[in-house]
């Protein structure tokens, strides 16, 4: 079975933005992903337990994937792994829609305090178009580049939210697509995914969804252009 696509940009309907850009057919655009690991606050006594889910974690991590982690340490200290997502949006696009889905039933989740815990809510941050860099696929994006940038590069800290169940999907939101650069080349739209800090609760969490780069029929997190 093909793996679920964790972050995917799918063109629903794309129109020309200028006379020099012809209308485009519907299509799918795949993302670039970077993990953003927050600074380690110190020694941790609490660690994730061995995987108990029916989907082996090793299988998920052997493929491209989105992974969110919250590791609870001592004295209330914690460390988080966020997910940076970049889409190259074709020049001439108009409107974008972000959706998350697990059509291949591959979502993995574990919580140290409760093996039967409900899947956590996700918070989606949206970056200022083009504020980070023109093409992050050529650079290693770090936690400090995004979360501690001066001036800030995050446009909306709570742009969208989702709670994904296995085999289900959820539309997160839509907005105008970013402009092409000065040469008429593809623009970029970027997001950061994290656990919703207001609904995280106690203990450590590990959330993983694999990403296909070839099969839009088994989506994970995808981005649609209209």
**How many domains, in number, for the residues?**
1
Nearest-angstrom radius of gyration?
A: 18 Å
Structural class: mainly beta
Strand content: 35-45%
Put simply, the count of helices is: 2
Residues in helix, %: under 10%
Q: Which regions have little confidence, pLDDT < 50, spanning 5+ residues?
A: 1-26, 43-52
Please, what is the average pLDDT?
74
- How many beta-strand runs? 13
Protein name: Ubiquitin 3 binding protein But2 C-terminal domain-containing protein
Signal peptide: 1-17
Keywords: Signal
What does this structure look like?
The chain has 226 residues and is mainly β. It has one domain (8-39, 65-225). It is built from 2 helices and 13 strands; from the N terminus they run βββαβββββαβββββ. It has helices at residues 57-61, 143-147, and strands at 8-11, 27-29, 32-37, 65-72, 78-89, 95-101, 108-111, 122-127, 154-162, 169-176, 187-195, 205-210, 221-225. Strands 3, 4, 5, 7, 8, 9, 11 and 12 form an 8-stranded antiparallel sheet that branches. The longest helix is centred in the first third of the chain and has 5 residues, at 57-61. The radius of gyration is 18 Å and the shape is globular. The model is unreliable at 1-26 and 43-52 (pLDDT under 50).
How would you describe this structure in keywords?
single chain, mainly beta, eight-stranded antiparallel sheet, five-stranded mixed sheet, 4% helix, signal, Ubiquitin 3 binding protein But2 C-terminal domain-containing protein
């Amino acid at each position: 079975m093909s793996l679920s696509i964790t972050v995917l940009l799918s063109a629903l309907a794309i129109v020309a933005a200028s006379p020099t850009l012809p209308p485009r057919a519907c299509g799918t655009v795949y993302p670039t992903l970077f993990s953003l690991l927050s600074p380690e606050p110190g020694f941790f006594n609490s660690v994730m337990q061995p995987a108990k889910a029916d989907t082996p974690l090793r299988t998920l991590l052997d493929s491209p994937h989105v992974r969110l982690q919250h590791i609870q340490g001592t004295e209330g200290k914690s460390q988080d792994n966020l997910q940076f997502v970049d889409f190259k949006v074709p020049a001439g696009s108009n409107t974008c829609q972000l959706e998350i889905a697990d059509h291949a039933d591959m979502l993995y989740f574990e919580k140290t305090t409760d093996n039967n815990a409900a899947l956590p809510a996700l918070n989606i941050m949206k970056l200022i178009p083009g504020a980070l860099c023109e093409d992050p696929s050529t650079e290693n994006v770090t936690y400090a580049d995004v979360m501690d940038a001066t001036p800030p590069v995050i446009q909306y800290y709570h742009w969208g939210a989702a709670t994904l169940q296995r085999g289900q999907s959820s539309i997160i939101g839509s907005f105008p697509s970013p402009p092409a650069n000065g040469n008429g080349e593809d623009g970029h739209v970027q997001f950061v995914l994290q656990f919703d800090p207001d609904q995280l609760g106690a203990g450590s969490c590990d959330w993983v969804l694999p990403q296909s780069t070839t099969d839009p029929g088994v989506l994970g997190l995808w981005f649609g252009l209209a």
